[in-house]
Amino acid sequence: MSDDAPLGGSGPLIDAHAHFYHAGAGRSDWARVNEARLRAGDRMGVTYHVASVLGSYGHASPTYFPSPDDVSRGNDAMAAIAVAEPRRVRWYVTVNPNHAEHALAEIRRGVERNAIGVKLLASRRADDPLLDPVCSLAGDLGLPVLHHIWQHRTRDWPNQEISDGRDLSRLADRHPRVSFILAHLGGGGDWAHTLPAVRDTPNVYPDLSGSGVDRGMLDAALDALGAQRLLWACDLTMETGLAKLRALEVVGLSDDDMAGMRWRNAARLFPAGAFPRCDA
Amino acid sequence: MIDVAAYVGSYPFRHLPHPDPDVLVRVLERERLAGAWVGYLPSVWQRDPAPGNTALFAALEPYPTLRPAPIVRPDWPQWERTLEEALDRGAAAIRAYPMHWGMGPYDPSMRELALACGAVGVPLLLTTRFEDLRQRSPLDVASDLTAAHVRALARADASVRLVVTGAGREMLEETHWGLTPAEQGRVHWDFAWIWGPPEDHLAHLFRTVGAERFVYGTHWPLRLTQNPRANLDLLPAELRDASITDASTLAFRR
User: Fold this and answer.
1) Partner-chain contact A238 B234, CB within 8 Å
2) A202 lies in which domain range?
3) Which end of chain A is more exposed for a tag (fewer CB within 10 A), N or C?
4) What's the count of helices (H) and strands (E) in chain A, helices before strands?
5) What distance in Å separates the CA atoms of residue A39 and residue B197, rounded to the nearest whole number?
6) pLDDT, tens digit, for every residue of A70-87?
7) Domains of chain B by residue range
8) Could you tell me the CATH number of the domain that includes residue A154?
9) For B224, which of A154, A190, A247 is closest by C-beta distance?
10) Which residues of chain B does A189 touch, with a Cβ-Cβ cutoff of 8 Å?
11) Which fold has domain B2-249?
12) Is residue A280 scored above 60 in pLDDT?
């Protein structure tokens, strides 16, 4: 392989779960981190980063319970990044369903600025009725919903109202026309619990992101759900994303299955035309 | 380059696919690693490590690239004899698990073990964690190894050589910057749990504590062996040629 060849292999690659920072995120190195994501993405061969900004990331209101003002400021920052990086970046509009009218208005405002999905944090349990208007609107607009998930919720954790695969499945059952991306199968908690929890809910699509690189996780996910329901992604740790890509390459998957996880499944879930460099 | 953090055997809290030495040998070849220091995973949760050590030596005997790293528990009767026998049977490093044995940072027996290993020139291998805290079984109650444990052992004597696996950036920095330069030189770290981009913790540590403080550890069969290589490959361009330490150079058996 030449030095210039993408480390993640050839062919389109969509990171379906990414984040960017901004000046209001309470960290002075926010621009460096954003640049590092794009740098590493280019090295890996990421065609598109589908990203969100989580309010002020705890600086002015809690990351997982962002105030409406922080939600809007974060979405403004995310939209600006997408405008500045039209070749590489697409975005989710983030909402806090506790502020129902604001959440709906923010989704409409985001779509006007080319958002292609909705990001839900851990502001409310996934099966709470407050999420229904958000999901109904996402369905009307043809947007997938990326939902922050804890793999097996056995107790409450501080600073977030966590949901697990069972909670998300109940929501997904109520909204069969909406595609739900279950966040970071490798992102903490017991992924082995998630797989049977969502197996019979066909509109739930786990992404493979997260810092966890447990051996056996990818094989189990493929066995339980099949490649057509899995999305490759990185979230906060891109080296684990690259490791998972390389691990998938030695599993012995078909080209179709690899392409599905790398980009085709994402292209199917998001609005048509969202990824022109993949469609070409 | 060798892998300092490999195991054979089953894990009590989840199924691991084929955690067997012949598979490990193939994985190491695929990852272009020359060998590994290998522990016996079930022993970590057993009170008496002796049966596990016996099983480890037997399992690795046909595989010369797999070097045994048995456990010596320094609060167990006749641990000195266990250490001697382990060395006689070719141990490349000695593993200890103070958190699983309920030992605090200044436990005198751990200090004795570190001194004994230092006296014979064999590295003492400490493991920060096996799994992410968020997924840990409620039965798995041992806390992560603390920086205080490592600092205490690094300060014990100039002969001590420690290899710490599974630490994150915070634990590593809390240890490293709490030691004198001479003491810092007694500790090596793997980077299996240290974040790459976009946070770039590994790049930061290469710039601050130095790439030479790091050794290669995969945590097979618990974790994907591809992860450390991916982390190195994604370093910023100016760090891509930085050289980490080959752990095979750390053993200085007297």
Assistant:
1) yes
2) 14-270
3) C
4) 11, 7
5) 9
6) 999 999 999 999 999 999
7) 2-249
8) 3.20.20.140
9) A247
10) 134-135
11) TIM Barrel (3.20.20)
12) no
Flag if A219 and B17 touch (Cβ within 8 Å): yes
Cα B19 to Cα A67: distance, rounded to the nearest angstrom:
48
A22 Cβ contact list (under 8 Å, min separation 6): A30, A53, A73, A74, A77, A78, A81
- Residue A146: inside a domain, yes or no? yes
Chain A touched by B241 (CB under 8 Å): no
Q: Do B197 and A214 touch (CB under 8 A)?
A: no
- Residue carrying the six token digits 């974060």: A74
**Residue of B14, B226, B236 lying closest to A243 (CB–CB):** B226
CA distance B253 to chain A (A): 34
Span A41-70, mean pLDDT? 98
Of A40, A150, A247, the CB nearest to B234: A40
* Within a domain: A204: yes
| Number of domains composing chain A | 1
Q: For residue A279, what pLDDT is reported? A: 73
Q: Any residues with CB less than 8 A from the CB of B238 and at least 6 apart, and which?
A: none
Residue A219 has pLDDT above 60, yes or no: yes
Instruction: Read off the DSSP letter of residue A86.
Output: T
Query: Which stretches of chain A are DSSP H helices?
Result: 30-44, 68-84, 100-112, 132-141, 165-174, 191-198, 217-225, 238-249, 255-259, 265-269, 276-279
CA distance B45 to A11: 45
